[in-house]
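Journal club side-thread
Mid-discussion, someone asked how the predicted structure for our own chain would compare to the paper's figures. Pasting it here so we can look after the session.
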Amino acid sequence: MSQTAQVPVRTKAKPMLPDWPRIMRREKAAQYLDISPAMLDQAVASGKMPKPIPITGTIKGWVRDDLDAWIEDRRQGYYPTSDWD
């Protein structure tokens, strides 16, 4: 009786980060950006970051797409363009 080698089955890689909500409150938005909530507050107060939008009553949150756009803006400013672009 011959033995066959077991070939490991590859599964789809799990994302490194969980699925983030479309609108995030202060703590989660700061976590998404990997900064402290105080740093988030400072960036909003100085106009460097988009303001949160009202969700209900006094609850506000940041739209994930706005945070992603802010990241891209910072990234574009960090990497200067070259003659190759």
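Post-session note: Residues 55 and 61 are 6 Å apart (CA to CA).
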